């Protein structure tokens, strides 16, 4: 199943058409895309019966962040060995976890304002929690996943690395610095959800290319390690890490500039297409 946030309304996507969930369910489920994760099992039981005659064609540019208001947003650094190496680190023995915030979320076709001239790209597979996970062993972790989506963990490197010690996370907090989408794909739609092509391009030039099969800590282990510390709640997001090819590690270094178009993909899950503009970002809806 594939679901999405279409102009602020929850829809089921089938081919090039969308089913409005609130209408098709006769108001059993809300139009609010965030609310569905609290009722994920009930929703997935109902969804196959949704009346296909109610489908309508839609404009993909109206798609917004599929999870617009998560309670918690986790991210993992240095989770690919090649990315750790390009930054001068060895592979970590434990997941290196930081947070992002929902004010950073934006949609799959949003234009992102650049707060500085050293903004970097980081293509990521993003996991959406569908059932509360607390002290969950790795072998049961996937049963707590609602689905997968595509994400970017944008980073303003100057702000991120300023000071001693550097504040690793703060350069990742700007509005628009967490594009996600274009839809949520349930794991059963994928042949192997642990081995997905991942990458991104800037103005058509591929700058990152890898596979999620190379994650040091795969999805199941990340859920096990995080849920050992605190509950993962329905609708929470987990950015799983980025492969090598970031601009900051290049020689010469390369960053995003106004007018650039960044395309990000995860095989079988979808593709983001975000443009960039000069100027300080403003907080707005997760579009």
Automatic annotation (TrEMBL):
GO BP annotations, alphabetical order: small molecule metabolic process
Domain Fumarylacetoacetase-like C-terminal: 73-275
Keywords of the record: Hydrolase, Metal-binding
Pfam families (alphabetical): FAA_hydrolase
Domain of life: Bacteria
MF term (GO), any: hydrolase activity
Family under the similarity heading: Belongs to the FAH family.
The protein, known as: Fumarylacetoacetate hydrolase
């Amino acid at each position: 199943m594939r679901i999405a946030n279409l102009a602020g309304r929850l829809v089921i996507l089938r081919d090039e058409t969308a089913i409005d969930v609130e209408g098709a369910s006769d108001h059993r489920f809300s139009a609010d895309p965030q609310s569905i994760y609290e009722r994920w099992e009930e929703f997935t039981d109902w969804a196959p019966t949704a009346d296909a005659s109610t489908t309508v064609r839609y404009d993909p540019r109206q798609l917004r962040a599929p999870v617009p208001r998560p309670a918690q947003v986790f991210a993992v650094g240095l989770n690919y060995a090649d990315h750790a190496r390009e930054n001068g680190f060895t592979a970590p023995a434990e997941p290196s976890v930081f947070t992002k915030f929902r004010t950073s979320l934006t949609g799959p076709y949003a234009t992102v304002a650049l707060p500085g001239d050293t903004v970097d790209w980081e293509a990521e597979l993003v996991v959406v929690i569908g059932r509360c996970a607390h002290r969950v062993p790795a072998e049961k972790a996937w049963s707590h996943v609602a689905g997968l989506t595509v994400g970017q963990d944008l980073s303003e490197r100057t702000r991120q690395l300023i000071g001693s010690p550097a504040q690793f996370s703060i350069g990742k907090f700007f509005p628009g610095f967490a594009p996600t989408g274009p839809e949520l794909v349930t794991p059963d739609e994928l042949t192997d959800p642990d081995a997905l092509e991942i990458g991104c391009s800037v103005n058509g030039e591929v700058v990152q290319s890898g596979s999620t099969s190379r994650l040091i800590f795969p999805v199941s282990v990340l859920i096990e390690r995080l849920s050992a510390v605190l509950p993962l709640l329905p609708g929470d997001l987990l950015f799983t890490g980025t492969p090598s090819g970031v601009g900051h590690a290049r020689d010469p270094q390369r960053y995003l500039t106004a007018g650039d178009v960044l395309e990000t993909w995860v095989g079988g899950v979808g593709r983001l297409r975000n443009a960039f503009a000069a100027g300080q970002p403003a907080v707005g809806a997760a579009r």
